[in-house]
Amino acid sequence: MSTAHAIRSVCLVRLSALGDVVLVLPLIRALQAWSPGVRITWVIGRGAHALVAGLADEGVEFVVIEKPRGPRDYLALRRRLADRDFDALLCLQASWRANWLYPCIRARRKIGYSADRARDLQRFFVRERIEGSAPHLVDGFLQFAEKLGMPRPGLVHWNLPVQKAAAEWAASALPPGPFIALSPCASKAERDWPLERYCELVRALHARGLGPVVLLGGNSERERLAAASISVGASAPVTNLMGSTSLPQLVAALSRCRLLISPDTGAVHMANALGRPVVGLYAVAPASRTGPYSHTEYCVDVFELGVRSLLGKDPSRVPWSQRVHDPRAMGLISVAAVLEKIQKVTERDDVMARL
């Protein structure tokens, strides 16, 4: 019996965050291609489920849970899956809350991260570990399938579903024709680009005839204030949809954009999964590890500069997990550097239009 046929049922756990949930898609696609008919069960957080719910139409089973807060939550999952016994459990999240889920799920094989990524004692909750740390998070997720015996896929496939109702909303709510999407706020403020530079950038985009610009993102106070500051400070028209879209609507909006400009956010990975170019702004972490997997050539990446100038370290000798936690880091990115990358995207579009 081949290894592929021996793997008939796989459970994977990745509760959040939004970007990481999108990055699991190539793993799902690779497993489906390698072992047709494999039953995939995904234990996922309620907040992230709407982003990938469309996979249910393709045979992926979801076990949607709230973020575990105590023993009752773990016992509830144990009871829910009491009659299930999986061939493999892929432990894609290493945190205290996630690690305690793994004893609640019965599986012949339980696979976790390598020693340098197995946070919060994950090694005590798994039976096997992947080897080493891959360059990008996507490659790291694919290592779990390789541990099952799957050969490394030649191409990475995404196919992020766009819901029909959300696509209809986007057709009526967004500016006609191509537009530039701007998602200015990351999950952590240290990864945000200075607001005054966003304003300068929007003015430059309009001066070059590259608008319209649409602001996208969440509904936190920081995001609302950022959108208001850009809308006023840019002195140029913008469409502000910050905090007014559902997750499916955000996906639909990104599927229609000409390109996305953003720091390290979930929107970066959504746009990438939809085949849209991303001009990513990276300083705290390198784009090669957490950036848009298919479009890192359009990123402005000053991580190594930050490691040298702000941390006083040699970038070639820092560990995989190194981050530049310094409030000055994102300020190392200039407006001119961002405009240069945008120019490369537009030049590519021009070439493709002539083909």
Keywords:
single chain; alpha/beta; Rossmann fold; 6-stranded parallel β-sheet; 15 helices; 14% strand; globular
Structural features, described:
This protein folds into 2 domains: 3-147, Rossmann fold (3-Layer(aba) Sandwich), CATH 3.40.50.2000; 164-354, Glycogen Phosphorylase B (Rossmann fold, 3-Layer(aba) Sandwich), CATH 3.40.50.2000. 39% of the residues lie in helices and 14% in strands. The chain is built from 15 helices and 12 strands. It has helices spanning 3-6, 18-23, 25-34, 46-52, 71-80, 96-99, 137-147, 164-173, 195-207, 221-233, 247-256, 266-273, 287-290, 303-309, 335-354, and strands at residues 9-13, 39-45, 61-65, 86-91, 107-112, 128-129, 180-182, 213-215, 238-240, 259-262, 278-282, 300-301. Strands 3-2-1-4-5-6 form a 6-stranded parallel beta sheet. It has a 6-stranded parallel beta sheet with strand order 9-8-7-10-11-12, sandwiched between helices. Helix 8 packs across helix 11. The chain is globular.
Helix coverage percent? 25-40%
Distance between the termini: 47 Å
CATH architecture of the largest domain: 3-Layer(aba) Sandwich
Strand content: 5-15%
With strands numbered from the N-terminus, the spatial order across the biggest sheet is 3-2-1-4-5-6
Count of domains = 2
- Low-pLDDT runs of 5+ residues are none
Number of strands: 12
H/E series: HEHHEHEHEHEEHHEHEHEHEHEHEHH
Please write the CATH class name of the largest domain.
Alpha Beta
CATH superfamily of the largest domain: Glycogen Phosphorylase B
**What would the principal axes of the Cα set say about the shape?**
globular
**Helix segment tally:** 15
**What structural class do you assign from the helix and strand content?**
alpha/beta
